[in-house]
Amino acid sequence: MPELPEMENYKIILNQRVAGQVITGITVTREKSINVNVDLFRKSVLNQKVVTVNRRGKHILFQLDNNSVLLLHLMLGGWMFYGTDAEKPKRTIQVQLSFGEENLYFIGLRLGYLHLYSPAEVENRLAHLGPEPLAAEFTKEEFLKTLALKHGRLKTTLLDQEFIAGIGNCYSAEICFDACIKPVRDIDELHEKERIRLFNSMKSILEKGVRYGGYMEHPFFNGDIVTGGFQDQCLIYDREGQTCKRCGTIIVMEMVSSRKTFYCPNCQR
Ligand SMILES: [Zn+2]
């Protein structure tokens, strides 16, 4: 499932490609992917300019001229592609927004969605989300204060969107590896030094994820060499049975709250 860096990468490219452009066509082939009937969706979205594209946690927000917002969550298996009809991926498209000759394709929206909301509705929908981990105002002091209120497994807390927004299975593993802390540890056991390491690793790993274009497997447009660059940067996620690049020990996988959890039993304490 795409996490903060994947969605931030999409946001950056969408602002370059579609911000300031008018939506000239709409095709909805899976009505369940939207939250209102197709006629209302079309009436509210067609001929609207995308003013800007924002991100909150794992969501993307397309801000339209008429103040409506298209709220996107890709969930498991969702992705996007931008290009002409001729470049269109050979996949089932659930929703297509056209910008003249070019189209924004929403693909793999099974659990994912593209919902139409008023500003108040979208605010309400996102109200439960915790702080943005890369925001400058989310300081070490804030992090330590929030973490002090949490108990239970570290991994489970990192995935909790109400604790911090945008971290999922891959980056939680990479953050814990970078901080040399086992994700299966109980938060109550973490020393002050480990908590600070965790904060620093959270910032640096998520920033690195964005810098390398996240881990999505498909390019966003033909000739896109940025998207997916983080795949080669994963040091621990999905590497069960392989050797740790830091110490050579075999990486193990353990299920935590029914999520695959990878760590090095030697260099993560
Ligand atoms: Zn190791």
Ligands, deduplicated: zinc ion
> What structural category do the secondary elements indicate?
alpha+beta
Low-confidence stretches: none
The fraction of residues assigned to DSSP E strands is: 15-25%
Largest sheet: 4 strands, antiparallel
What is the radius of gyration computed over CA atoms, rounded to a whole number of angstroms?
20 Å
Provide structural commentary.
With 269 residues, the chain is α+β, with helices and mostly antiparallel strands. 28% of the residues lie in helices and 20% in strands. The protein is built from 7 helices and 10 strands. The protein has helices at 4-17, 38-45, 119-126, 140-148, 154-159, 169-178, 192-211; strands spanning 25-28, 50-56, 59-64, 69-73, 79-83, 93-99, 102-107, 113-117, 252-256, 259-263. A 4-stranded antiparallel beta sheet has the order 1-6-7-5, covered by helices on one side. Strands 2-3-4-8 form a 4-stranded antiparallel beta sheet. α4 (140-148) crosses α7 (192-211). The protein starts with a helix and ends in a 6-residue tail after the last strand. Bound molecules: zinc ion. Residues 244, 246-247, 249, 264, 266-267 line the site of zinc ion (ZN).
Map the helices and strands.
Elements: H1 4-17, E1 25-28, H2 38-45, E2 50-56, E3 59-64, E4 69-73, E5 79-83, E6 93-99, E7 102-107, E8 113-117, H3 119-126, H4 140-148, H5 154-159, H6 169-178, H7 192-211, E9 252-256, E10 259-263
Antiparallel strand pairs: 1-6, 2-3, 3-4, 4-8, 5-7, 6-7, 9-10
The chain binds zinc ion.
Zinc ion binds next to loops.
